[in-house]
Give the backbone structure.
Amino acid sequence: MSERLDAAGVARLIEGLPGWEAEGEGAIVKEFRLRDHVEAVGLVVRVAVAAEVLNHHPEVWWVYNRVRFRLSTHDAGGVTEKDAELARRIEALAAGG
Ligand code: H2B
């Protein structure tokens, strides 16, 4: 199991992840605004596949063209390197990669 980051560790992590915010020490979140609903569907499905590959799954809030991902490692009770990896993957997918 990955170890949970403390507040300083979470702060360092999101420095390298533009637009991501810490929700205390417990989670990191980012909301994406896509061109339209279909673009949002595409991002959600790509992230779902990536999450399955990584065996690490985001919470997803989704309304029309807005998608918000909340990442936390339940097993560790906070943010870990697994969340960092998934956030980096989400960034790449949102950028079209
Ligand atoms: N996703 C997240 N976000 N946190 C977890 O602790 C987690 C997960 N655990 N996906 C995984 C699956 C676990 O349930 C399986 C058994 O490895």
In short: The chain has a mean pLDDT of 96. DSSP finds three helices and four strands in the chain. Residues 37-54 form the longest helix (18 residues).
